[in-house]
Amino acid sequence: MTPPRPEAPSHARVLDFATRTADLLERAARTAAAEAPTEDQGDSASAAANTTAANTTAANTTAANTTAADGARRLRAEAARAADGAASLVVVGEKKRGKSSTINSLVGVWDLLPVDADVATGVHVVVRHGERPRAEAFLLPGNQAPDAAPHPEPIPLERIAEYAAVDPATGRPHRLDVHHVEVELPVPLLASGLELVDTPGVGGLLSGHAQLALAALENADALVFVVDGSSELTRSELDFLARATERTAETVFVLTKTDSHDAWPTVLERNRELLARYASRHAGAPWFPVSNRARRDAADAAGSGELHDAAELLEESGFEPLDALLRRRIAARAAELRLANVVHVALAALAAPLAEQELRLRSLQQDPTLAAEVERAEEALRLLQSESAQWRRALTTGARDLKNTLQLGFRRSLNDVRQHAEAKIATSEPTALAQEFPADLEAQVEAVWLQLDNAARRGLAVLEERVRRECATVLDAGRTETGRADGGRPGTELAVVDDSAVIRAERGAGLPEMVHSTHQDGGPLGMIESVIPSVGTAATFGTVVALVTSSVLLPAVASYAMLAVLTRRRRQRAELGRVRGDATRHLNRVLTELSTEIPAQITSHVDELTDRLAVALDQAIADERLRLERRLADHRRDLATAAADLAAGRDRVKRRIGSLTALRDEGLALAHGLGATTGTPDPDRS
Fold first, then answer.
1. Rounded to the nearest 5°, which phi and psi values hold at 233?
2. Packed helices 553-639 and 430-470: angle between N→C axes, nearest 10 degrees
């Protein structure tokens, strides 16, 4: 019999624990600063030695204070993210599938996103909870500050389409300076801890916007895939789902327009079969047949006081089970994972001061082995500061491997862009190619940037962990005698990769414009040039008709008709060749510029961040050496301290250890509860 799933600790309980832990760390830092010895303290026989020891202790107490204060600051920041963070749902679907209507129905704002056709969406639109309705368009910086982040500009809700939509005539966004749009609404579903990300949807899901959606999935908690009940999944949809397999842990399917297509149950079963065959990773994902029209009618009936009809229409719409799953499975699980991370940060922050106080207690107990242990640890740290230290070699090798990996991934991405673009050039009609190709190529380029940034972020995090573990044993040597409070995870936190972009992705920024060539085929000479090559074929066709029919008028008409058809086909071929040539030249120019600029940026960004990592680790080693020097100074002073003073000091330290231990044990219990519900390992079982 399967044991019942344990109840996770409440959101409020974990955040209260984080607040109390941060408060204690800040008090510990202030207390340590207040207790830092001066040159008048101690009973050393040599005043000069006493002054040196006191000054060393004071200097290193400052380092310890900084560690505690930094731990409190990191913990408060992590708690704020958990308090404000929401599970991200990336909503994907081909045009005219009801994607925007589904988002409008979920939030209960029927005219929020344009619903005439999903092709209207040209940039990401993020919809999250807020105390009042508001929207912001994030605008790309101008040429004066190309490296700056997009800046927000408040916009009315009714003007979202103006900033987020594309021009139907050209296929390009109305506003080329818009990176994305964010919307806040006071909606219960969003307040439960969800945010919806509406992705661009131009053409099929194999377009450049599919690459954008795939890149967005790397930072999402779930994929909401929207299809309709008119027909089964297309090849492009199945290909997209197969490629999305490794990007997200959760997939939810929404089948729209059940009120318009009576055969939707058959379509649903066929879709399940296709998933099992071509995208088996998603075969067990839940399906929700819905009617956006019934959902809106239910809201209208409720607003008119027709509660019975509203309840029936809401049940018919199918949105209640979808709403419940999004809240229960996705929002709740994402919240638990964020809370688990808060607890982990708290335990890591508690580890150093707890180990420090336990070592302090050993010193106050005049442990005869302590001095030798500290001296050995100090010698190991000295070796870590050597230019030939293993961690420096690991950093150099890892940075080189990361740059090679990113360069290879970038070249492969460019090959994919070229392959897709050449296929589009070869198969598209001239008008569609001229209108859609530049925007589609821009979307693919942005997807390359996003994928590159995600890969760089992951690679740097792995490199940071690898280098940190190379010297974790030595860095934490002073804490191993009493055990670490974080369950075995090394306590040094470097965190050189923050929430900002490692390699900035900007939508179409700096890309050259597509140049449209012209062909002068007017005037008498142009007419002769286009007609003469077809005259012979038309005359031959008229002769054949004359021989077959023995008519006089019919061959002339047939010759003229054939001449018109051949002339028009010749002009169409010329126009197609001209547009394809324009698109090919534009593609080659864009890829050439990317191949020239981006490899250098990869090298620059990785070098910059690895330099920051080396500086951070050097500082961590130096801080640890200062801490050990303080430990030795404290211990030598304790050896000469009167028994009564030692007893008073031991009592103070024991009280501090008791407070820290109580918080650590509470944190381990919270981690155990969260690990049982989220599937994350318990820190006390590392």
1. -55, 135
2. 20
Q: What is the pTM of this model?
A: 0.62
Q: For residue 207, which phi and psi values (nearest 5 degrees)?
A: -75, 180
Q: How far apart are CA 619 and CA 612, in angstroms?
A: 11
456, 603 contact by CB (below 8 A)? no
Q: What is the dihedral of CA 134, 139, 145, 148, to 10 degrees?
A: 60
Distances (CA, A) of 18 to 66, 72, 132, 534, 609: 19, 9, 29, 83, 30
How many Cβ atoms are within 10 Å of 671's Cβ, its own excluded? Answer: 27
Q: Cβ distance 209 to 238 under 8 Å? A: no
Instruction: Label residue 531 by pLDDT band (50, 70, 90).
Output: low
> Could you report the per-residue pLDDT of 337-362, keeping only the tens digit for each?
788 888 988 998 898 888 888 888 88
Report how far residue 627's alpha carbon sits from residue 491's, in angstroms, rounded to the nearest whole number.
Answer: 14
pLDDT tens sequence across 85-129 = 778 888 888 877 888 889 999 999 888 887 764 445 667 889 999
Q: % helix / strand / coil in the chain, to the nearest 5?
A: 65, 10, 25
Helix axes 235-243, 208-217, angle to 10 degrees: 30
Q: From start to end of 99-157, where are the E strands?
A: 124-129, 134-139, 151-155
Distance between CA atoms of residues 424 and 422, nearest Å: 5
Type of residue found at 27: R
Q: 224: burial class by Cβ within 10 Å (0-12, 13-18, 19+)?
A: buried
598 half-sphere exposure, CB direction, 13 A CA radius: 30
Report the C-alpha gap between 417 and 208 in whole angstroms.
8
Q: Which region, left, alpha or beta, applies to residue 580 given φ > 0 means left and ψ of -120 to 50 means alpha?
A: alpha
